[in-house]
Amino acid sequence: MELQRLAFSFFNGDVASRYWLDIVYGMWVTTYLAAAIVATGLAVGLALAMARSFHFRPASFLIVVFADAFRALPPLVVIIVLFFAFPYVDLAMSAFSATWLALSLVLAAFAEEIFWAGILSVPKGQTEAARSTGMSRLQTLVYVILPQAVRLTIAPLTNRMIAITKGTALGSVVAVHEIIYYASSGASEAGNPTPLTLGAAAYVVLFLPVVMLSRWIETRFAWKR
Amino acid sequence: MLKGIDLAVAEGELVFIIGPSGSGKSTLLRCCNRLEDPTSGSVIVDGTDITRPDVDLNRVRQKIGMVFQSFNLYPHMNALGNVTLALRKVQGLGRAEAEAQGMAALTRVGLAEKARAYPNELSGGQQQRVAIARALALEPKILLFDEPTSALDPELVGSVLKVMRELRESGMTMVVVSHEMQFARAAADRVVFMDGGVILEQGRPEKIFSRPDHARVGEFVARIASHQ
Q1: B1-63+141-228: which CATH number, 3.40.50.300, 2.60.40.10, 3.40.50.720, 3.30.428.10?
Q2: Is the pLDDT of residue B228 over 80?
Q3: How far is residue A194's CA from residue A183's CA, in Å, rounded to a whole number?
């Protein structure tokens, strides 16, 4: 075992002291990029699932096509297309915007399917009871169906949110100044992979609380039938 | 499913609908508030033809209460929340006013003290009475009951029937799909026997249960009676 060489390569205090500030700045960019993706992705996904529940065939068809396409495409491909191809159709966007939009669309596609499954899991009698009291389809959806559906979606939704917001690392490909961008450029500049260790630590610091929070929300929102 | 039904229910009348499963009882009931859409014909409630395409369905449904076999209470709301939701969102009442009206409805079904209880904390009989209160709170002209006691343990049936009897005494118009024959005998003005999507026979309960014109009705009544 060459523990000393391992320590020199991956836990090099000297290198760490030179690059930790970059990583902290990267954490900030990752955090607000991730927050923007979650907000947009969940909002669009929920809106699409709600639209689908009105059973208007052409709309449902388009929603399914969207959801299937963006669940099938690798997020990296979507980012690259938005960043490198869209300028040719006069839709140039910054690296940050391209990453935000690409990952938001991917999250929206998954979120739509998860919300939709939640909506379907609510027994039909709930809709019938609400409609029989004169509530409209939208009121029934908002006050009766969604509160029940959303509880069931919390676990799969947080898993998906974590998976996709970690995908912000893909933004490094188009030079978004997030954690991995600083970690890998720091590593090549220093000729030492310690900045990657710092990057890994940064992800743990950011995402561990999210994972723990989701566990808490899950127990909090569980209720007996 | 239904093959030409002609049925008029007078104000204040309690009509019982019986018949074998698949005879169209529930479908008929669900046509009365358009949970099911009849392919032809019309359904007239309180002077309004609710099958007309221009009818405001959400408006007329407030006047047509429905009680389901499986209660269908909203599990994420307490009893009072269940009863007041439509009052607030459909009729636009303020919280205080809706809750006063909701408490009055819960009092009528004898569950005022359970206002803050959630459906999973209530027995089946209590849940069904909350469901009745939910329909009552909107002050309907007619109440439709779709097998209201079929999902209940036998010892809980009585409390629901008691509420239904009190409603009947207060002059509520009711259409009940159910096989509670003793209750029908005691409370129904008329019993309608359906089979194969048509009304085979109808009349006073003592007539239908004791001296029906059709042998098919007699057989059915005897079979149900032997299970009760």
Answers
A1: 3.40.50.300
A2: no
A3: 8
Question: What average pLDDT score do residues B197-204 get?
Answer: 94
| Domain extents in chain B | 1-63+141-228, 75-139
d(CA B66, CA B70): 12
Q: What is the pLDDT of residue B4?
A: 87
- ∠ CA B160-B82-B79, nearest 5°, is 60
- Enumerate residues 130 to 149 of chain A having a beta carbon within 8 A of any beta carbon in chain B: 130-136, 139, 143-144, 147-148
The matching CATH number, chosen from 1.10.3720.10, 1.10.340.30, 1.10.1040.10, 3.40.30.10, for A11-221 is 1.10.3720.10
Which amino acid would we find at residue B65? G
Question: CA–CA distance from B71 to each of A99, B125, B164 (Å)?
Answer: 48, 9, 15
ipTM > 0.85, yes or no: yes
pLDDT along chain A (225 residues), means of 10: 87 91 94 95 97 94 97 95 90 92 97 97 96 96 95 87 90 91 93 94 92 82 57
Contact A116, A47 (CB under 8 A): no
DSSP bridge pairs for B13: none
Residue A123 phi, psi (nearest 5): -55, 145
Are residues A129 and B131, on separate chains, in Cβ contact within 8 Å? yes
Residue ranges of B 122-151 with Cβ closer than 8 A to chain A: 131, 134-135, 138
Q: Given a cut of 70, is residue B183 above it in pLDDT?
A: yes
pLDDT value at position B45? Answer: 92
Query: Long-range contacts for A204-213 (Cβ within 8 Å, ≥24 apart)?
Result: A205/A27, A206/A27, A206/A30, A206/A31, A206/A34, A207/A162, A207/A165, A207/A166, A210/A158, A210/A161, A210/A162, A211/A158, A211/A162
Q: Is B92 on the interface with A (CB under 8 A)?
A: no
> Chain-wide mean pLDDT for chain B?
94
Chain A residues whose beta carbon lies within 8 Å of the beta carbon of residue B120: 223-225
Task: Give the model's pLDDT for residue A57.
Answer: 94
Do the beta carbons of residue B74 and residue B82 sit within 8 Å? Answer: yes
